[in-house]
Amino acid sequence: MSIRKMIALHPASKDHVNQPLGDAVHHLMYCAKMCLSCADACMAEAMDMTQCVRLCLDCSDICEATARLGLRRTGNDQPILRELLQLCARMCEQCAAECEQHDHEHCKLCAQICRECASDCANAAASLA
After folding, report:
1. Which CDD domains does this one have (predicted)?
2. Model's pTM, two decimal places?
3. How many CB atoms neighbour CB 32 within 10 A?
4. What domains, with CATH codes, occur in the chain?
């Protein structure tokens, strides 16, 4: 099942999907869950992972909110969506930078999806200009 297909089926989409936005929504959904999982794994680590947990949870929340707004086709609020995508890209970069400081496999995986998501968010924001 593809979220891009679901977006295209919305009556307001008229079978057209902004591809960069569809890609961003796809990654946002995964990134939110990966960050949530990484935060949980960080809490189980023996070392103090407080900052990593915080950034992963913040990133997850911002990704979730951005994905929800990116899915909406009814009406138009592109300026806010563009700002949220830009904010999300920055948050993903910050989370990735924190995760990259740790030698845990869950942090490495989280950093990777965060970097991919940041790139897609930046591309989607640019497509809404």
Report:
1. DUF326
2. 0.90
3. 22
4. 18-127 (1.20.1270.360)
